[in-house]
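Hi there,

I know you've been waiting on this one. I reran it after we fixed the sequence typo, so this is the corrected version. Both the input and the resulting structure follow.
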Amino acid sequence: MRSFCVMMEAMTCSHVATLPRTVPPESAQDCVDCLALGERNWAHLRMCLSCGHVACCDSSPHRHATAHFGASQHPVMRSFEPGENWRWCYVDSAVV
């Protein structure tokens, strides 16, 4: 049986250049928006690289990371999962 690997090639986008050099996360391990609703049901966390807002991913019931982009227009989130360092640009719909 042959095994195939799919690699996501990161691209550059103009939005990365506009991000602050560092931004502290708003939460160490929770979706802030889910907690505000009294819920703790999320799949994975994302952190906004513009303001540090920590929110749940699109595999979670409320999709708060995408909602944050819609409300704030902050373009780039990163995975907030241990061992992951990829970033997603909502404007370019790309890993950056």
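Quick highlight: The chain has one domain: 24-95.

Best,
R. S.
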